[in-house]
Amino acid sequence: MIVRDIEIKNNMTVSELIDEFYKSGGFMAKELAVAVRIIEEMVKDKECTVFLSFPACIVATGTRGIIREIVRRRFVDVIITTCGTIDHDLARIWRNYYHGSFALNDLELRERGMNRIGNVVVPNESYGMIIEEKIQPILMEIYEEKKRISTKELIWEIGKRLENEENGKSSIIYWCYKNRIPVFVPGITDGALGSQLWIFYQTHRDFVIDVLRDEDELSDIVFNAKRTGAIVIGGGISKHHTIWWNQFKDGLDYVVYITTAVEWDGSLSGASVREAVSWGKVNEKAKHVTVYGDATIILPLIVTALMDRI
């Protein structure tokens, strides 16, 4: 295929620009275009169960709105993420996060009761304090109905209670509950919500978070799927849990990785699709691509192009 120059035209859509990227032949522009094509195919494949995994950090940014649109439009069937995702998603219903800078003085921020996530600033009252205020009454409501609950059930129960919140429909987990998209959080204690669960547990020792019930549900999803695909943003436990479960059905059939990590330090976050093939987590015949770059730039382009095409 001949390398062709990108041609920009008036009133060009993002989808058309992505097609120009494909023709350009180089470097991540081409890979991004391939990613859009693979995701379009897996979403349109009615016999494919689509997983989305991502870390919490992007939910602290405006990319939260992109994730929300993905679930609102039912582009995916299953989410696997971290406790911090639930923290940021909930906190931003009730309080604001703020623009900052990577160069801010972190000692001064600490003294002023502020926290930094890259170039996003989160005041104490916008995070742990508001989560404690809002979540403890919700946990009591849930406890009065059921004393043993999986992370998927817990998140849906919280999502259900956002229906009448002023900004509840800005929430990712609200739309997951509304559209019955399961959200699994294998590291449920690793965050502010996890701390609130532990605090609640101090006075309610019969309240159990049953993570093995999540694994039962994940096994049913994977074993009942004819084909599976995954959009994997970043790495860590979210990525690993997604690809780990898919090894039990001969691997994923479609895979798009979006990452800034490198593979030569042996990290899971930087591990290539090729490496996952060696484990059987990705099928050797799978359609796959890795896009190296910042998901806060890449994901909005992908989703906007998908909205043009689907």
Question: What can be said about this structure in brief?
Answer:
With 310 residues, the chain is of the alpha/beta class.
Secondary structure topology:
Elements: H1 14-24, H2 28-44, E1 48-53, H3 64-72, E2 78-80, H4 83-94, E3 98-99, H5 106-111, E4 114-117, E5 120-123, H6 128-145, E6 148-149, H7 151-160, H8 172-178, E7 183-184, H9 192-203, E8 208-209, H10 211-224, E9 227-233, H11 236-246, E10 252-259, H12 273-279, E11 282-292, H13 295-309
Describe the fold and architecture.
- By secondary structure, the chain is an alpha/beta fold.
- It has 13 helices and 11 strands.
- It is globular and about 65 Å long.
- The longest helix has 18 residues, at 128-145.
- The strands form 3 sheets. It has a 6-stranded parallel sheet with strand order 7-2-1-9-10-11, sandwiched between helices. A 3-stranded antiparallel sheet has the order 3-5-4.
- Helix 2 packs across helix 13 (295-309) and helix 7 (151-160) crosses helix 8.
By oligomeric state, this entry counts as: single chain
Broad structural category: alpha/beta
User: What's the total count of β strands?
Assistant: 11
List unreliable stretches of 5+ residues.
none
What is the alpha-carbon Rg in Å?
A: 20 Å
Terminus-to-terminus distance:
27 Å
Percent helix: 40-55%
Biggest sheet layout: 6 strands, parallel
Portion in strands? 15-25%
Mean pLDDT: 97
| SSE arrangement, N to C | HHEHEHEHEEHEHHEHEHEHEHEH
Overall shape: it is globular
> In which order are the strands of the major sheet placed?
7-2-1-9-10-11
Helices, by number, come to 13
